[in-house]
Structure formats: C-alpha cells, structure tokens
Design a protein that fits this description.
The chain is mainly beta and about 260 residues long. It has three helices and 14 strands.
C-alpha cells in the first residue's frame, strides 16, 4: 500500500504546539505518532441509556497500547466493555501484535487476537473455545483499535486528503473499510467548541471519527451506528507521559466488571 510522507508544514498550519512536538521526538522508532493521552467521553445509547468511556493511548518502550474502557447503563442494566490493541511501529505504519475485546454483557463476543507478522499469520481465540487461524495475512492489516491509531497518524501526515481503503481483521473476519476525509467540523465539548477533521466510511455506512489537529489529533467524537460519544475531558490536559523504561512487549489488561 503506497503511503505519502508526513508533512511538517501541514501540521504547522494547524497550530501543533511546540511542547507536543518535543514529546513526539522520543516516540518509538522516531515515528511521527500522536502524543499519548487519556481522555473521558460521554454519549447515549437508544433513548434511556448512557455511555461513559475512557480512551487511553500509551507509549511504552518501543510499543503503543490503545485502550477503550466503556460502561453502558440502560435502565436497570449496567455492564462494561474493553477493547485494547498493542502495536509496534514501522515507519508510519502501526502493526498490531495483540487485540482484545471483552463484553461483560455478551461473553460470546469475547475474542483475543494474536498477530505473528514474521509468519504472516493471525490467530483469533473465542471464549467458547473456537479458534480461527488466518495465514498469508496481508501487510498491513489492522484490528478495530489499531486502525484508529493509524487514522491519527495518517491525518497528521496528510494521507487522508483523499479516500482510501484500510484492511481490517475483526472477530476473525477480514474486510476492507473505505474511509475518506469529509472536512473540518466544529464539535461541541464540555470545554467549548473544538475544530476537528471528520473521517467517515466512504460506502455510506454510519461510522465517523472526529480528530482535533490543535490537540495532536485527539479524538473528540466517535460514532458507530446510532451510538456516538463526545469528549468530556479538557483536551488541553489529556496528554500523558511517555514510559521509555519498558523493555518487554506490553499486554492488554482484561479485567472488567460484569453486569447484574
């Protein structure tokens, strides 16, 4: 897959803070990665439900870990979900090593995917004992979480100026996601409006990511189907420190609370 080189002038036009540029200099492999962050989000599910989410991007040694912890409350029902991806970086591409999905309300959907890029193979293990193995895995292929990190990188490098396709491995199935840059929209947050670029599905399906250039492409809104969550944290205070002391490959942390 051909890729465009990153362009510093494009970032400068969007006011990327000098302090954040200094933070990125120590990123894994020197790649132009989004700065690590931890941010909270709120949304609604149907008419009577609410969603609280915590999204975290960590730089750990030479790897990245991207985690979404979600709590869904609907009338008398409350449950949690976990989505996590551990990645390595090669140039301006992230390659997932492990992806984990946990749903306390529907454990049949629980999966753990392990990527072996040397063997071009991925293994998907379901909680019910099923296993799916994919051989001759094309490079690059992303899981649902690492794809979001790749979108941040591509947005920073200007690679989203035209429509393009991303290969996704989700729950044991390979598919192509056509995505395109829709333009800049102003997103309302609890700390005031934020200008964000909107990335959406190019085939008309309801999926959108709003990334804020001023805050190093921090997601300020995410929509999947009829469910959308918006940033509640102060975007200027979402940055985290880089942990360069870790020498082993990090893992996803699975424990979540089950619903009643």
């Amino acid at each position: 897959m051909a890729r465009k080189p990153g362009r510093g002038r494009w970032m400068a036009r969007h006011g990327l803070p000098a302090l954040m540029l200094g933070t990125l200099c120590s990123a894994p492999h020197g790649a132009d990665l989004p700065a690590p962050f931890s941010a909270s989000y709120h949304g609604s599910k149907y008419l009577l439900g609410s969603i609280e989410a915590l999204l975290t991007l960590e730089h750990l040694g030479q790897h990245l870990r991207y985690t979404l912890r979600t709590k869904v409350s609907i009338v008398l029902l409350s449950y949690e979900l976990l989505d996590c991806s551990v990645m390595r970086v090669e140039g301006d591409i992230v390659y997932p090593l492990q992806h984990m999905h946990r749903d306390a309300h529907n454990p049949k959907r629980n999966t753990t995917t392990v990527f072996d890029w040397e063997q071009a193979r991925a293994t998907v293990a379901f909680d019910d004992g099923r296993r799916v193995e994919l051989h001759d895995l094309p490079r690059p292929t992303w899981d649902p979480m690492s794809l979001q990190v790749q979108l941040m990188i591509d947005a920073k490098g200007g690679a989203l100026e035209t429509a393009r396709s991303y290969r996704l491995l989700d729950a044991g199935r390979l598919r192509e996601w056509p995505l395109r840059l829709r333009g800049i929209e102003r997103v309302a947050t609890q700390h005031g409006p934020v200008d964000a670029i909107k990335v959406e599905r190019g085939d008309g399906k309801s999926l959108g990511f709003w990334l804020a250039p001023r805050y190093d492409y921090l997601p300020v809104r995410v929509q999947v189907g009829e469910v959308a969550v918006s940033l509640t944290s102060d975007p200027g205070a979402a940055r985290r420190a880089i942990d360069s002391s870790l020498t082993t490959v990090p893992r996803c942390s699975p424990p979540i609370a089950a619903g009643p």
